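Cross-posted from the bioinformatics board.
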Amino acid sequence: MFTRTVSKMLVLILAVALVAGCGGGSQPKSDVIKMGANLEMTGGNATFGQSAANGAKLAIKEVNAKGGVLGKQLSLTIADNKSEAAEAANAMQKLITQDKVVAVIAPIASSSVMAGAQVNQDNKVLAISPTASNPKVTVDPATGKVRDFLFRAAFIDPFQGAVMANFAGTTLKAKTAALYIDNSSDYAKGLAQFFKETFIKNGGKIVSEEAYLQKDTDFKATLTKIKAQNPDVVFAPGYYQEVGMIVKQARELGLIVPFMGGDGWDSAKLPEIAGAQALNNTFFSNHYSPDDNSPAVKAFVEAYKKEYNQTPDAFAALSYDATMMVIEAMKRANSAEPVKIKDELAKTKDYAAVSGKISLNATHDPVKSAVIIEMKDGKQTFREKVNP
Amino acid sequence: MDFTTQLIQQLINGVSLGSIYALIALGYTMVYGIIRLINFAHGDIYMLGAYVGYFATAVLKMSFLPALILAMVVAAVIGVAIERTAYKPLRHAPKIAVLITAIGVSLFLEYGGMLLVSPQPRTFPELFTTQIYNIGGVIVNSQQVVILVISLALMVLLTYIVQRTKTGKAMRAVSFDADAARLMGIDVDRIISITFAIGSGLAAAAGVLVGVYYNSIDPLMGIMPGLKAFVAAVLGGIGVIPGAMLGGVILGVIEALVSGFISSTFRDAAAFAILIIILLFRPSGILGKNVREKV
């Protein structure tokens, strides 16, 4: 009986000591600067989120190896948003209020970034999304004002559409184009609209405008119709699953003109679905290509391969860039105070990132180059770099 | 491409799409015919069949026909298991309860599938080389021919089973009047199970054919074709087997013509507008007979 009471007391004392110890450990004046990442570690977009987490971790590791920032080491706390917008808002809340991070790498998906945006604004801690490309992420559609704590490292949708229209007109010498749009995606509709505007402005003609929905499988009827219009190119902004089937069925119907699209095509599944042969003579715009010969890309690809034993995709590259942009802002601000970092980040100009030279404009959208990838025998090959 | 070639091409596109709808619609119509249940999980059995076909060819390295048969058998077993566990206990419950259960089973299969095989789309290995025939500008793919031949063969087999065998006779009897059939010594539960087995097998066959033809399968692939096949079954006359075949082909052709000559954005609208028009003006469908409900 006696021993049991003693042991109970001991446990109590230990517990109190532990709690006190914890309280002491999380003082604001530590020698670690905490950054957070609110990413899709599980759920439908898990592969994207994991790539992005790897990119951010690599950036932090490299900076720490060189002595850190402001004489302190950096740490990265990752919160899983389960690929859901509601969870993304919770994760943002947790990172900022519990973990007290000074800046957050925001989710991959535009909708998830927007779900947490108010948390960032209220707590005055910035979030930078590696890939969110919807214009509404940084500009509040209700007020038309810039959300001053929201940033991104990727170019926005309108730019990709314009890039592909210019590529079709100048490099492929196309006079006529057909649009085949994923009608269930705002992303695809945005790309198509800006492709159309630029293509027409350059003197081209849109001969046919067709649409499909996600999860459609049979595209032959519409492709037969497009073929009858004889376009020089087909612009099909959408995601790889449907695009793969579209290209496959188009080639089977003898529609052999170039097909083009945006970064939704970027997946190893695309050649599996469409077939390597069918994908020849197709092009898409992307943020970066691992085959790009610029020194920044080469160094990044090498370091990433050494760390994770795989080739980095665009998500990893953009997340690496986003993390580095925040760290650069800390250096320039000479402070790890969230508001000061935000002010400096907004002034980013000509920062030589892996995915090209980045300057942020007034709406926090990067002005940067895009690459055009050509599919050759099932492999992505670097075709050209297009400057804004 | 002139108008006639385009029209013929669209008809070919439509028939090959329609024969898939027909295969799925057959299962709907058989189950409805026998227990008056719209089995909303039917489209997901089609998905399941596609996945069995995928694992048989990609992992077990089976060739096309054995994989097709394996998929049909596995789907038939699962179809019966679903009927026994989810629908049989509700045989005397109100119809709406069974209908809701069917939706539950459908969601269970879709999201259980996502958990089990991940939402990533998968692609079939190349099972046979595709020949493309160009006949005066009209393009026919050897896979389209395979789909049509297999669909026709299965429909002939089904018609034979239903019209010429003892089991088929029992099925027709149960469909006509289950209580009277039971009094005549027919094991009604067994016949219902057989119906589910055959319907699920046909859906699985459609799943494998689609997997090979379009080369992309995922756990939610059954939703849209399931709904379309339901429209096809209603169009042809639900409960009537030749009606399902006819309805499937007609729906496929209408979809192809609408996307080819009007606009691709109207395609699904056209399919469901047909459902509404049929329900308004001829609720028993093209081949259905108007039978007064017994009260």
